[in-house]
Write a structure and sequence with these properties.
By secondary structure, the protein is an alpha/beta fold. Helix content is 46%, strand content 19%. It starts with a helix and ends in a 6-residue tail after the last helix.
């Protein structure tokens, strides 16, 4: 099948701006022209590519074509760099998935160091971000999935170290008799979202059985840090964020020394690997400054 790359640009612009009107402004075309390009592309592939709404979103087929368009753009960028030394195309944001704890600790400096990209970042749990690259929704992902995904290159980054903490007053209120199964079943914890199993898995491991743990859901790493400091609950967060509060005595470890780590990997589409070489290098370099047992 031969695809119309002007139509692919229209598809990408709609999904990046959220509307046909936004795509028309971005590409300098009329809205009817954008509509016509999408209609022809949908007729060509034989399926709906965009869910019309506010904002417009991609169907499964649309997401796959968007990834294809982005990878073509990256390949074009590499060719242009090889031939003339020009920079990346600023009209094609790079869609990647990054877990929130990496964003809060080490990943943003890495993204800043990889010059010339616009990023469209999807925040997802490290145990689930691999699904996004499998589905074609992103070109690269930081994930805990330690085996190369089909069609991807995998780069070990190291492991993010976690401590389970709360305030001294919270510990006195809820864990006066120790960190028991009953106490863990009663004391509220802080969790990023329903995909996040860090707290539940830690509690189950400590108790030696499956528990129903009362949970506050708060989808921000820094917000969870502040909520734990305010005594809203206990939780696991990166040691890099919590160590100053542990040093000051504002927080204590629920079980001193009982920490754990989560291995992280950068999985990137093999087609896009040459164009993302600088980004991959920056991620590995900055991961090595914070993650434990980082591999090169």
């Amino acid at each position: 099948m031969i695809l119309d790359y002007d139509a692919l640009k229209a598809l990408a612009a709609i999904l990046n701006t959220g509307s046909f009107a936004g795509a028309a402004r971005q590409l300098g075309l009329t809205q009817p022209a954008i509509t016509q390009r999408i209609k022809q592309l949908e007729d060509r592939v034989g399926t709906i590519l965009i869910r019309r709404g506010r904002p417009c979103t991609a169907t499964e087929a649309g997401a796959r074509l968007l990834r294809h368009a982005e990878e073509v753009g990256l390949l074009e960028k590499t060719l242009v760099q090889d031939l003339a030394g020009f920079g990346p195309d600023p009209d094609r944001p790079l869609r990647i998935a990054v877990n929130a704890d990496s964003l809060a600790t080490w990943a943003l400096p890495a993204l800043a160091a990889a010059k010339g990209f616009l990023f469209d970042i999807t925040v997802d749990d490290q145990d689930h971000s691999a699904d996004l690259i499998r589905a074609g929704e992103v070109t690269g992902a930081i994930t805990s999935h330690g085996r190369a995904i089909s069609g991807c290159d995998m780069h070990p980054l190291g492991a993010l170290d976690y401590a389970v903490t709360c305030t001294p007053s919270f510990a006195a209120q809820w864990f006066a008799d120790g960190v028991t199964a009953k106490a863990l079943s009663d004391a509220p914890c802080l969790t990023f979202n329903r995909k996040d199993r860090l707290q539940r898995d830690w509690a189950d491991d400590v108790a030696g059985t499956r528990l129903a743990v009362p949970t506050h859901y708060l989808p921000t790493t820094h917000g969870i840090t502040e909520a734990i400091r305010l005594g809203l609950g206990w939780g696991a967060n990166p040691v890099a964020l919590f160590q100053p509060f542990l040093d000051s005595g504002d927080l204590v470890e629920l079980i001193p020394g009982r920490r754990f780590s989560t291995p992280l990997f950068w999985q990137v589409s093999r087609q896009a690997t040459p164009a993302l070489r600088d980004l991959t290098r920056a991620l590995k370099q900055h991961a090595a400054t914070l993650l434990i047992s980082a591999q090169s």
